[in-house]
Structure formats: structure tokens, C-alpha cells
Write a structure and sequence with these properties.
Blueprint (H helix, E strand, L loop, with lengths): L1 H11 L5 H8 L7 H22 L15 H17 L3 H10 L4 H22 L2 E2 L5 E2 L13 H10 L1
Antiparallel strand pairs: 1-2
Length: about 160
């Protein structure tokens, strides 16, 4: 049900069209559609999370203390580069592919996302994790070590 709501919302809001994304990111041809959808979605999510927290829904209680490190900034920059260049965020990319699976450009972009995720998983898997979740290995010189929080380290090692 939730996925159906998200896909329907993206489609109705026009977010499956790359032109909307590039228009929102291009000052010369500014299109506020993305920003209106984004602020509206954030507002609705904020309200429902507050309701869920008051109802003691465990999943609505986010862990605090997220770490802003080089990996996050590098990942955000690469994501932004891909998003700005193609006009596709992964969710709308899947929606667009589902609506038109024969579109070669959409298929190639989706395959690029999958290949990028797989390549990153292989590089990150070469890290070795000790019992506390600390990482070491050759890629440690390329990417900053995990944060000092044991939960974050354990999650990263188990995920990859």
C-alpha cells in the first residue's frame, strides 16, 4: 500500500519526468514543481511521524547522532551529480521504467544505478570487520573509517 502511494504520488506530481527535475535545478529555467512536492511530502511525513511517536510506534523513533563524514559527503555529491545529469532519482527512475520498460535511456540509467551500487558493495566488502564492527583493509585509505558509534559500524559491516 505504501509503495503504491509513493509511486502514485510521484506520477501525479510529475516527478517521473526528468524535465521537472532539471527545471528545478536550473536557475535560468526554474520550475518550482519539485520543491512544492518535496516540501509538501516532508510536511506530511513530519506530521505523521509525530502522530506515530505519540502512539509509541517504535519505528517512528529515529536514532539520533547521525555522523556527517567524508563518505556521506562523497556519496551525496555523486548522487547529486547523477541526479542532476539524468534528472532521475532512484524512486522515479523505477516508476518511469515500470511505466515504459522499452525506453532504452531509462533502462541504461537503471542499469548504471545497479552497477554503481554493486561496484560500491564489492569495494566496501573488502573491508574486514572485527567483532566490534571496526573496519580495516586496503580501501581504508580511500574512504574514511566508519564513525565511532558501534551501532553505525556494526550496521555498515553487516550491510556490506
Amino acid at each position: 500500500w505504501v509503495g503504491c502511494c509513493a509511486g502514485t504520488g510521484l506520477s501525479i506530481g510529475g516527478m517521473v519526468r526528468p524535465s521537472v527535475i532539471t527545471g528545478a535545478l536550473t536557475p535560468a529555467n526554474f520550475d518550482s514543481t519539485l520543491w512544492v512536492l518535496f516540501v509538501t511530502a516532508l510536511s506530511v511525513t513530519f506530521v505523521f511521524y509525530r502522530i506515530a511517536q505519540r502512539s509509541l510506534v517504535h519505528e517512528a523513533c529515529a536514532a539520533s547522532g547521525g555522523v556527517i563524514d567524508r563518505k556521506l559527503v562523497l556519496g551525496a555529491a555523486l548522487f547529486g551529480l547523477g541526479w542532476g545529469y539524468t534528472g532521475y532519482c532512484p524512486g522515479p527512475l523505477l516508476s518511469t521504467f515500470g511505466a515504459n520498460p522499452s525506453d532504452l535511456a531509462t533502462l541504461l540509467c537503471l542499469l548504471g544505478v545497479i552497477n554503481g551500487m554493486q561496484a560500491t558493495a564489492r569495494v566496501m566488502a573488502s573491508f574486514t570487520c572485527d567483532e566490534k564492527g571496526n573496519t580495516s583493509g586496503a580501501p581504508a585509505q580511500l574512504l574514511e573509517k566508519e564513525s565511532s558509534g558501534p551501532h553505525y559500524q556494526q550496521f555498515s559491516c553487516q550491510l556490506l
